Amino acid sequence: MAPRPPRIDRTAFGVSVGLIVLVCAPLALAPQAGGALVVQAYESLTERFGLIYQWATLAVTVFLVWLAFSHHGKRRLGHEDSRPDFNIFSWMAMLFCAGIGAGLLYWSTIEWVTYLDKPPFELAPNSTEAVEWAATYGIFHWGISAWALYCFPAVAIAIPYYRQHAPVLRLSTGLHALIGRDGYDRPPARIVDVLFILALVGGTGTSLGLGTPMVAACVSEVLGIAQTFGLQVTILLVCVTLFAASVYLGLERGIKPLSDGSILAAIALLAFILIVGPTNFLLRSGTNSIGLMLENFIRLNTWTDPVARTGFIEDMTVFYWAWWIAYGPFMGLFVTRISRGRTVRQLILGMLVLGTLGCALFYAVLGNYSMHLDLSGALPVRDIAAQAGSETAIAQSIGFLPLGTLVLAVFALVAIVFIATTYDSASYCLAASATRNLPEGTHPARWHRLFWAVAVGILPVTLMFIGQEGGNDQLRVIQSATLVVSLPLLVVGALMAVSLMRSLREADRESET
User: Which CATH class is domain 33-512?
Assistant: First the structure.
């Protein structure tokens, strides 16, 4: 008898869609009040829970390093004779593109502006120390700790899915040892899966809300047209169409080749900037930043700014940790799906080491290039960012290169493809989470994947609208939305840790018998 095709989980689907509409509609109808409310929630939550985000991030990082080098690290995801479905390049390309999106292009190029003007550790603005930390802090925020927050859900979901044959691929799969095989249709598991869907839609909304205006600024510079809200929506529709087509085609024919192509294009772009840009400065500053981050890794993870209370931690570090936590469950599901045949150690080290190195490369090249333009007086990047916005500063920095118009067009194309590869992966995971039965080797229905590809475009339009039309700081609104949707996942993460430890102990008992 042929296996039954995957069926939609009407409860998870209906509740999730209903809540998304209930959240987006009031924000769109009252953008000024909605934006102010979201920002107020951000400030309150960072004050009360910011320290918990820092503790959780450090604990997860230490735990994963221990797990990778323990005897559990040798366990294979799947049967012991299973081999990886994808080669190392395609596997890394898919998880890297899924995890970083256009947000990496945005922040790696412009994040140093914040740190140079308002440096950490009460350093003097524009000082030599501030310059060094401006080139370093972004690498930390996109480094080992960030990828640990991505990796933990992947491990917590992959082990029960492949080793204990969990019947579904959802966030609640990470609670398998607590809820059992019969617990996936009960209220606790349903609540967890709905929380995941809401958090992922919120997380993807924030990244699209950053990447789309940046692409619009590039298009504006190339074509010489005004950068308007309508242009941003048009760009967003192009991105949604692209990743809808990709997710409809599936992993092998859609997501995999798109990820491979985007990584190759990004490598070519970085190589061009490294060669024609201030090569010596890029190499020296990048090397210095890696050393500075490693030397102060514990300090960076535990600095809470308890005396001066400058707001640096709340505005940047807590925002980033919240962003990774909001995205973490999605990465857990997607990485689980593409990691059959790999060992737990390969999974952890691949994400923590290769993911960190990939992000560091973007910061070392793009960030140091734009910072050098400003420090050398070639282009007042900080003034442009203050007067016209960060996305315009990014576009003008890239356009300052030789063959600037062509390079800017390539940069915009890479950003669009990065957006697409992130959200086709997200759409796949959303469809999987709202599917009732999805055993190993099966996929959600195509129409279901296509629906979520369109649905994830709703929130970023809303966020851009309340940021632009509601008179609010668009970046602040996006940061606030990220934190709000990530908070419930802290509780889910703690439960997943308990479940994972039970699964590991059960695996030890089975190996002894």
Answer: mainly alpha
